[in-house]
Input
Amino acid sequence: MTAAAPEPKVNMGQPVPRYDAAAKVTGRATYASDMPLDNPAFAFLVTSAIAKGRIDGFDLDDAKRVRGVIDIVTHENAPKLKESKLFSNGGYAGTTIQPLKSADIAHDGQIIAVVVAESYEAAREAANRVKVSYTATAPSATFDSPGTTTAAAKGQSAQFKEDPEVGDFAKAFDTAEVKLTASYETPTQHHNPMELFSTSCVWMGDNLVIYEGSQFVYGLKNGVAEQLGIDADKVRVVNPYVGGGFGSRGSMTPRTAIIAGIAKRLNRPIKLVPTRDQGFTITTHRAETRHEIKLGASRDGKLLALRHEGAEVSSRPDAYCVGGTKTTARLYACPNVASLVSIVRADRNTPGFMRSPPEVPYLFALESAMDELAVKLNMDPVELRRINDTTNEPIGGKPYSSRSLMACFDEAAKAFGWAQRSPQPKSMSDGEWLIGYGCAATCYPTQMAPSAARVRLQRDGRTRVEIAGHEIGTGAYTVIAQTATERLGVPLEKVAVFMGDSDLPPAPVAGGSNSTASTCSAVMMVCDQIRQRLFKAVMPDSLTDKAKETVGISQAPATQAAKSDRPLDIEKAFNALGVGVVEEYGEWKPEGAPLDSFKAMHSGQVRIVGGHAMKDQIAYAFGAEFVEVRINRFTHEIRCPRLVGAFAGGRIMNPRTARSQLMGGLIWGMSSALLEATEIDERNARYVNDNLADYLVPVNADVPGVEVIMLSEQDDHINPAGVKGLGELANVGTNAAICNAIHHATGQRIRKLPVRLENIEV
Ligand code: MOS
Output
């Protein structure tokens, strides 16, 4: 075993190498824009230079003179499209702002024209020659800009149903011995996956094939069909590999139906590869947020009152919000809780999901405040979490299905060397470097959604798994292949997995860290159907019908069954059945899934359950993160030499891919705390650093030490796979852990992200 492939502990699968590793490192993995097209035309987008107002007219003469231009599509001649509701309101779209519909401009960088030409270069050249005259009005950019409106999220957003509360916060806070009130801010951030937001559309008669990196092929298929007004069965979305998602490809963006409509009209395949800066405004982003936290505690550190007020910026028409109080109100034992989430409308593109959407900003606030409270109480911050640890969430009193928060704190503290910390701020240094140690809790809801799968087993053991899941770099191919291996007892090299194609059996959006739990549970179930058929075929007649129903099916993997006294003789079973291939299709749904789940699954609508919204319990994965920061006394340069995280996420399917996910999360968390912010020119409501040179992300030298510890955890109450999901868990706590470490190093409390050297005042 190596650092990259940790030794499995109890309830962990094998750290097998990635199923798609060779394809990726040899360039055989085909991403959307790699797909060969027959005689394509190339599209280039023209985007708005104003954030609010209207287009008075276009001067296209110069653009049309570029050799190779085929068509220039504006609102005056664009194909008519139907509207789709917002993803979070039961539709498919990431925004209801539909470009090319009218002369109105809703945000900077909105698509206002599409130039189609014989080559990419010609399309780009012509796009640069499109002249637009506007009537611009002053836009409202963000918090504090004149002209924004603010209202409670409840009642506006279908996704945000309730501001959690319990007890009497006001009274408890009033009488608490120790009180803290503090405000926090997080910036706009953009996902910037490596793969650009490309879309290729090919019509064959009435049938449309879309090549586009997506986290949800069924959603995109049904959403585009809805916008085009055609039967969803006529649309197929293909993306066997996706070059990063992080939430940016979960919902449909307007570009896809636009390109499909133009391809239909021109009767030609069209390929669009938007530029990096266009990606900042034609998809979604993490919205800027503000928080006020009030904590009241007894002298011995027991939380008595907690209030979390959050505000998030959204666009004018869309009430998008993440509403992380659903988590922060439930994380610690506290009898009196109040909360309020508000949405601020500005002249911006609609924000959307970005890795751990609710938990990243909301736990930054809560976990910073917990550290501030620990300082006030003169208490070790780990002990403050221990005193307020709980087996039941305080709002509804429901038990956590399992909760290893303090075990994570203890393991990570030991590995980090927390005991060596001298608690006094500014008390540790090394030459000109001030040293700070900080920590924070991390958590993420365990979520699941209905999923289908088809599995085919051949006599020689070759196995084919078909499921419209998504490989967004997480290891989905690998863990699905491992599931089939474990349940059917066939060797891994005989398993082929087919994903990223809406012609395959439906799987949920690869979002909310639900993929492994959902797809592996479905694949397990279908593999068990196959085992059942095989066992029945060779079973002695003397067994009762009841026994026949269950024989061969147990929680124990087939690999173990195969080693048992009475292994299944596959050869004999196939002979008895008189077939060469056994194939099964099945649809799995999690406990508590609504009645319309399977119908919704086929129409690409999400029915995610889990987290705080379960009936008799709530389910979360937990972790603890410890960081060391070093701050130069003279230059204020901030370094982060060590990130240590311990995590418990139920069954770990593959410690190699899991470690990679968690490591990526920690690194992104550090990036979010110290580097990432989309800067907004408030006069023009425009993103300024919309490129990878100015939008700061870490390089290897910024991340010298990352240590991931995975705890053994078994949770039989969540889903058949026993999986909690790891994609989003690790970047949640890091923002706070770093700010807490900066406070320890300098005595300065920073409540606004990101923290850069100009913010340090020592
Ligand atoms: Mo994730 S931000 O739920 O794709």
